[in-house]
Amino acid sequence: MRPTCCLAVVVMLAAAPIAQRRSGTLLVLNKTDAAMVMVDPASGTVTGSVSVGEGPHELVVSTDGRYAFASNYGGQTPGHTISMIDLAAKKELRRIDTSPLGRPHGLAFAGGKLYFTAEAARKIARYDPASDKIDWQFETGQNATHMIVVSKDLRTIVTSNIASDSLSIIEENGGTWRQTVVPVGKGPEALELSPDGKRVWTAHSRDGGVSAVDLASHTVVETFNIGTKRSNRLKFTADGRFIAISDDESGDLVVLDAATRKEVKRLPLGKSPEGILVPPDGSRVFVAVNGDNVVAAIDPRTWSVAARIQPGRGPDGMAWAR
User: Fold this and answer.
1) Is residue 3 part of a domain?
2) For labeling, which of 85, 96, 101, 240 is most exposed (least CB within 10 Å)?
3) pLDDT above 90 as % of the chain
4) Which residues contact 64 (CB under 8 A, 6 or more apart)?
5) What's the pLDDT at 23?
6) What is the edge-to-edge ordering of all strands in the sheet holding 219-225?
7) Could you read off the pLDDT of 151-162 as tens digits, one per residue?
């Protein structure tokens, strides 16, 4: 499918301009259009569009900024590809076949390689762009292994397992990988490392809770309820002061003070807010409001919507390209 429009329409809702942000490009995956679009964050204009596979969900950019990767989750038929996109050329470089690893979803790029979850196979895997091969995989044995984060030293990988109500902490020691399964709340989906890398945070999609897990002890050190109906994504702001959580069912963005865990704001955004992106300079928090076909650009100084960008149909996963 192709996107139906070439230009984004931006409705400015506040005097605070987004043009003050450092140079960069907002990348947005449109699930309905099966396309990744490039957006000038200052003007909201779509500057490029690349077709990808069916039902793309998550997006990540390589460390050198040359490539983007989109997980093609699929529709009624499970997807089994990941699109590798040349950002300078604005074209799909290759469509990586992950078979038999179906339903690729969560993505992380680290150490020159792409890590991804494969929900249908109950596995995680690693793709090497240099050799164009999947060079490692690990079976979690958990149901709906969904999101993934990788530590800076590449020795710890964490996944959220929605249907098993658990997180998997997968660690390498002497060339051997071992898994610790940590039970959390109902339907853990969102996943994020704390700024210091010592804890992993998850928001539960089915009980309104948030859990923090200590990576050293493999234990849940904190759980609290924030009253969400279906938490989707959780992100720390660039300065680490706040935590933003999208509630797909209520249409709100819930903002917490990271130190006190107290609610700062519950901001109505529209129908089905999903993906959250915080660019490196932290001057905006972007939220993909999937059901309204917009991306809300939020000013974290006031936690108000500064602009609404229209990137296409069904926006979800986002990434930032320098």
Assistant:
1) no
2) 240
3) 93
4) none
5) 77
6) 188-193, 199-204, 209-214, 219-225
7) 999 999 999 999
Contact between residue 59 and residue 317 where contact means Cβ atoms under 8 Å apart: yes
Sheet holding 67-74, edge to edge: 56-61, 67-74, 78-86, 91-97
Residues 36, 37, 41, 44, CA torsion sign = negative
Which tokens hold the place of 204?
Answer: 């539960």
Going by C-alpha positions, the residue among 111, 258, 277 that lies closest to residue 196 is 258
Q: Are 276 and 296 in contact (CB under 8 A)?
A: no
Q: What average pLDDT score do residues 59-79 get?
A: 97
Q: What are residue 148's DSSP bridge partners?
A: 159
In a domain, 55, yes or no: yes
CATH number of the domain bearing residue 250: 2.130.10.10
Residues 6+ apart with CB under 8 A from 274: 232, 233, 246, 248, 287, 288, 289, 290, 315, 316
**Paired strand residues for 145:** 161
Phi, psi of 152 (to 5 degrees): -60, -35
Name residues whose C-beta falls within 8 Å of residue 60's C-beta, 6 or more positions apart in sequence: 68, 69, 107, 108, 109, 114, 319
> Has residue 146 been placed in a domain?
yes
> Does residue 107 fall inside a structural domain?
yes
Mean pLDDT across the stretch 267-294?
A: 98
- The domain in which residue 234 lies consists of 10-321
Would you say 209 and 202 are in contact if contact means Cβ atoms under 8 Å apart? no
3-state secondary structure of 290: helix
Euclidean distance between CA atoms 14 and 286, whole angstroms: 15
Instruction: Domain count for the chain, please give it.
Output: 1
Query: DSSP readout, 183-245?
Result: E-SSSEEEEEE-TTSSEEEEEETTTSEEEEEETTTTEEEEEEE---SSEEEEEE-TTSSEEEE
Q: Is the peptide bond before 268 cis (omega within 30 degrees of 0)?
A: no
